Amino acid sequence: MTILVIDIGSSSIRASEVSLDLLTPRPIAQISTKPSSPAPGIVEIDTVALKKAILEVAEAAIADAGNRLDAIAIASQRASATLWDKDSGECWPIGISWQDLRTSSTCLMLRSQGLELAPNETATKYLELLKLSDGRIANPALGTIESFATSVLTNGEVHISDITNAATTGLISYDGSGYDLQRVDKLGIDHSFLPKLVQPKGALGMATALSMPLPIVALIGDQQASMIGQGCVTPGSAKLTLGTGAMLDLFVGDSRPEFERKGKFGCFPIAIGSNGSELSWGIEAIGLSAGSCIEWMASSFGLAHNVEASEAMSRRANPKDQSIFVPSLAGQGPPKWDFGARGAFFGMGRGSGSNELFQAAFRGIAHMAMDLLESAEADGKLHIQSLMVDGKMTSNSEMVRHLATAIGLPIFLSKAVEATTLGAGLLGLIGRGDLGSLNDIADLDIPSVAIDVTEPRGSEQHLKARDRWRAAREETMGEIPALSMVSF
Questions:
Q1: What is the pLDDT of residues 98-129, one digit of tens each?
Q2: Alpha carbon distance 309, 470 (integer Å)
Q3: Rounded CA gap, 337 and 101, in Å?
Q4: Sign of the torsion formed by the C-alpha atoms of 98, 100, 104 and 110
Q5: Does 277 score more than 70 pLDDT?
Q6: DSSP 394
Q7: Cα separation of 19 and 197, whole Å?
Q8: What is the model's pLDDT at position 124?
Q9: Of 245, 230, 260, 287, which is closest to residue 425 (Cα–Cα)?
Q10: HSE-CB for 463 with a 13 A CA cutoff
């Protein structure tokens, strides 16, 4: 069986082919769908272009792979909000990205009324879309990206959302069993506007909008898909995705983390999937800036011709230079959330040039990743023995080298740079019955590359490096006091 995976990211849509004989996904088509940012804190999605792109990549895959394709799995960015008409299929032209912060004041107002929501959750984005459309959508349907894509592919016949995506909306009950209807009512959202909640796998609909109709058998959020794609489906297994930001996800098991919204060390509970009727849970730690820092240094600072040049420049840096960069360009995540923190270089001397600055940046991003790992361990009450790693930044050998030094644990680099695609495909195979459950994924020989660890975690040199990092990190906190006071 072969699964067509449609992977809808924040800046592009990819179509790839995945099968048990092809544990490294075969890319087929990709279309750029970069969001727009007309003002600071505003990040919008062109839903008309998104709809067109979803159909185009799917048709390109059908033209390429033909009768090899048996079903569709959809992986998607989480928490973004869309609105369309259930009857006509006409979509409101603006979707609100998960990165959009325009509803921060709404969240603060709701908090004063006893309702905890964050601007990176979907709930207040739904309110904003309903306000913007002002009744011009006759029969409204609200949905996150996988919900929108499913409606597009099924000609509007299916309005559903899977629990891995729905759990990021802020509208789901504590145990993930359904909507928190009391919360929905407090927000004034009509229940009929919301998608039906489904498990991530199974017979979810038929893509009748395509020239070759295919069953949709899996829907899943991007980070959960990445976990599955790297075999992180047993308690204590964890993965790190290094892209624009950084996401560390730890598999906990069938018991939900005890904290409702955010743990003591800044992590969030996430729904991952299900084994039979049992929902599997994890913990997520978010680094707000990673690859974006290297892009910023190359473009805004003009320190390199392009991002790719940073690898060779860091390799030429003086290894004795102890400069370090704290990547808090958009604030800090775990263990101490601080939206008012800002980035800074520390320890520079006369010998610190552009090569050393890139070395400092990779070193700092690596230590930030270790913060995420330590925070996830503390909130999850589990010990991580090794770390799986994927994401665009892992193609940079200097990033990987510094990561291995800062983590001090065995690291396994995914051969599928975008493990999200592989994970969605594997979930699709479970949905088709070709794999039994998430437990079977742990037994697969998923291709990865082991990275040597030079300084084991807890060694004297490792502990000293961590102390230097923490001292630098603390210095960057509270730079914008008004933002530092904001907490979600």
A1: 988 899 999 999 999 999 999 989 999 999 99
A2: 28
A3: 16
A4: negative
A5: no
A6: G
A7: 27
A8: 97
A9: 230
A10: 3
Q: Return the SS3 of 366.
A: helix
pTM equals 0.92
Overall residue count recorded for the chain in this entry:
488
Q: What is the pLDDT of residue 330?
A: 87
Neighbours of 467 (CB within 10 A): 10
Residue 401 in tokens: 């080298």
Q: Residue 166: CB partners within 8 Å, gap ≥ 6?
A: 144, 172, 195, 197
User: Taking all residues of the chain, what is their mean pLDDT, rounded to a whole number?
Assistant: 94
- Count of beta carbons in the 10 Å neighbourhood of residue 362: 29
Block residue for tokens 């644990």: 409
**Residue from 369, 322, 362 nearest 346 by CA:** 322
Closest CA to 241 of 280, 200, 272, 286: 286
Nearest Cα neighbor of 200 from 444, 426, 20 is: 426
In whole angstroms, what is the distance from residue 441 CA to residue 147 CA?
26
Question: Which residue segments constitute the domains of the chain, with CATH numbers given?
Answer: 2-213 (3.30.420.40), 227-488 (3.30.420.40)
Q: Which amino acid is at 380?
A: G
DSSP E strand boundaries for 22-149: 22-32, 36-39, 42-46, 71-76, 82-85, 94-96, 140-143
Q: Quick check: 9 and 77 in contact, CB under 8 A?
A: yes
Res 156 pLDDT > 80: yes
pLDDT confidence bin for 275, thresholds 50/70/90: low
Spatial distance between the Cα atoms of 341 and 34, rounded to a whole number of angstroms:
27
Give per-residue pLDDT as tens, 336-357.
Answer: 999 999 999 999 999 999 999 9
Alpha-carbon torsion (420, 426, 428, 430), positive or negative: negative
Q: Would you state the structure tokens that stand for residue 435, as one six-digit string? A: 């794999």
CA distances from 476 to 290, 342, 471 (A): 16, 6, 9
